[in-house]
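Record type: monomer structure entry
Structure origin: computed from sequence
Chain ID: A
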Amino acid sequence: MPRTISVLLLAVALAACGAREQPKRYPMQGEVKALDANAKTATIAAGQIADWMGPMTMEYKVKPDSEFEKLHVGDRIEATVVVNDLAYYVTDVKVVGKN
């Protein structure tokens, strides 16, 4: 019986190791500095993004295309950054002002 329990615990532990971690979602606020329509990316000067990143200007992929179409250079936005390991993108874009 103890051997059966040990085998079951080992199986559960191995299954947990193979499980993919869910992407993390962070609110962001920033200003659109540049757009690349071919790559569907926006260069955004963002403030602190929770515990993921300090204030910084960088390029973000914008998904889906309908969210990218909302953007113009100079827009102040609120959005969500979705982070999955080293991959990240912006979605749920709301234009809150223009500069």
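Annotation 1: The longest strand covers residues 24-36.
Annotation 2: The longest helix spans residues 2-18.
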